[in-house]
């Protein structure tokens, strides 16, 4: 069985931190208002080459909602035939478990971002999906029943009614006891690594292929995705100011409500690679910030970002831009705050990983370098 390895402890710890922040990042179990309750919609956008970039993206004034197009990765030409049975490792929170899959005819691939369902689709196996999470929205997915409720909580009864032959998840949705209940019911449940960026996506793509008995299909898909990311970064490069002094300094802040507590996401969070892909300067990297940690008011004012990225639901929970600036005076004192240069991104897509990475890079680039095109 061919596998792709190279997970780093730093990345693994960061993903664990993201998972532990799940109450905040997704609030999928406790706060339905903080999670998407409607299906994500595909968005048609003009090519980046048709946009007029800002002369100096550091000085733009006003908030922007990023729009993510796609999905842009088409399924593989010939759908592979699963070679079963296959035994794979499920990376459960309690430890690794060997799981044997004997039937891949009725698949559930469930994750917060929809990335697992998108991967199954990319392998040309979407006709085997008997259900989906609310974030999975490849063309044709609208005909597949949703088995998550309150945004991203698994409906056990709904799942069992579909008689899936195998379930693939990444631990980003639950509750955990429901997942275990499904396994106790005799369904092979496989937990793969969570994809939040390109590096982790390549690992997850191989794990999904392995679980479905189509291991050989992973390398071609990974190669396509690698090329798509490289091509998108080349497109974005045409929007970036030639004068490096005009590169915007960007910070991603996790905010929720008006509690006054916010996290700065740094190295290993997944957001760092997105900021790098659009050619902006990551203020977290400048100060050696690793993972996701609470940020003090004084520290935020000191790093003074030109642009602040937030998640859409987080911004809404804070009362929009006005509410955020009123509740967080330190944000209001930064250049981004003074210019109201707050960019919000769909909660699920920002950390989507998977085949949506080129689309997220595209959407962020538009919001940072050509925000007027989104008005």
Automatic annotation (TrEMBL):
Domain Fe/B12 periplasmic-binding: 108-372
Record keywords: Signal
Presence of keyword Flavoprotein: no
InterPro entries listed in its UniProt record: ABC_Transporter_SBP, ABC_transptr_periplasmic_BD
Taxonomy, superkingdom: Bacteria
UniProt record similarity statement: Belongs to the bacterial solute-binding protein 8 family.
UniProt-recorded name of the protein: Iron complex transport system substrate-binding protein
């Amino acid at each position: 069985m061919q596998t792709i390895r190279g997970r780093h402890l730093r990345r693994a710890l960061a993903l664990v931190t993201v998972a532990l922040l799940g109450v905040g990042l997704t609030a999928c179990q406790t706060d339905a208002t903080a999670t998407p309750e409607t299906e994500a919609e595909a968005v048609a956008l003009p090519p980046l080459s048709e946009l007029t970039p800002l002369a100096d993206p550091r000085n733009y004034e006003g908030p922007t909602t990023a729009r993510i197009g796609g999905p842009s990765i088409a399924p593989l030409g010939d759908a592979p035939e699963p070679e079963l049975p296959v035994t794979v490792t499920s990376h459960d929170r309690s430890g690794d478990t060997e799981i044997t899959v004997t039937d891949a005819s009725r698949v559930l691939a469930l994750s917060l971002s929809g990335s697992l369902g998108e991967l199954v689709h990319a392998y040309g196996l979407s006709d085997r999906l008997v259900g989906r999470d609310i974030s999975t929205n490849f063309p044709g997915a609208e005909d597949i029943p949703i088995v998550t409720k309150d945004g991203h909580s698994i409906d056990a009864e709904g799942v069992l009614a579909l008689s899936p032959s195998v379930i693939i998840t990444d631990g980003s949705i639950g509750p955990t006891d429901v997942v275990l209940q499904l396994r106790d019911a005799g369904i092979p449940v496989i937990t793969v690594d969570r994809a939040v960026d390109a590096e982790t996506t390549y690992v997850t793509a191989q794990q999904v292929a392995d679980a479905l008995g189509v291991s050989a299909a992973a390398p071609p898909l990974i190669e396509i995705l690698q090329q798509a990311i490289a091509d998108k970064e080349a497109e974005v490069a045409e929007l970036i100011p030639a004068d490096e002094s005009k590169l915007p300094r960007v910070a991603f802040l996790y905010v929720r409500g008006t509690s006054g507590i916010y996290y700065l996401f740094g190295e290993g969070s997944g957001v760092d690679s997105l900021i790098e892909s659009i050619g902006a300067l990551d203020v977290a990297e400048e100060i050696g910030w690793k993972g996701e940690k609470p940020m003090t008011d004084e520290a935020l004012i000191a790093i003074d970002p030109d642009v602040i990225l937030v998640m859409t639901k987080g911004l809404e929970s804070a009362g929009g831009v006005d509410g955020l600036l009123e509740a967080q005076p330190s944000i209001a004192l930064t250049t981004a705050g003074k210019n109201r240069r707050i960019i919000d991104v769909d909660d699920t897509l920002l950390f989507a990983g998977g085949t949506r990475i080129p689309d997220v890079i595209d959407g962020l680039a538009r919001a940072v370098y050509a925000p007027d095109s989104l008005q």
